[in-house]
Amino acid sequence: MSAYSLRLHHLSGGAPIEEPLEASDEAEARELARVRLLLTRDYSRVELHHAGRRLDVFTRDPG
């Protein structure tokens, strides 16, 4: 398992929260990041990071 991290950005603003994420590969990490955003309505976007670099950004639809 490779260690990834999520940066969770609150809808209300403020500092983002860093959260560790364990995934076997990048595809699984992307899917888990999308699910994390969908399951929690508190966040406007989630950034997926690995080894200090941003891999992807997932944003909530405004509607």
Structural class: alpha+beta
Rg from C-alpha positions? 11 Å
Oligomer: single chain
In N-to-C order, the SSE pattern is EEHEE
**Averaged pLDDT, please?**
92
The major beta sheet can be summarized as:
4 strands, antiparallel
The counted number of beta strands is 4
What proportion of the residues form beta strands (DSSP E)? over 45%
State the share of residues found in helices, binned by percent: 10-25%
Distance between the terminal alpha carbons, to the nearest Å? 35 Å
- SS summary, helix count: 1
Q: How are strands sequenced across the largest beta sheet? A: 2-1-3-4
Dominant shape: globular
Task: List unreliable stretches of 5+ residues.
Answer: none
Tell me about this structure.
With 63 residues, the chain is an alpha+beta fold. It is 22% helix and 49% strand. It has a 4-stranded antiparallel sheet with strand order 2-1-3-4, with helices on one face. The protein is globular.
Map the helices and strands.
Elements (H helix, E strand, L loop, with lengths): L1 E9 L6 E7 L2 H14 L3 E8 L2 E7 L4
Antiparallel strand pairs: 1-2, 1-3, 3-4
In short:
This protein is α+β, with helices and mostly antiparallel strands and 63 residues long.
Question: Which key phrases capture this entry?
Answer:
63 residues; alpha+beta; four-stranded antiparallel beta sheet
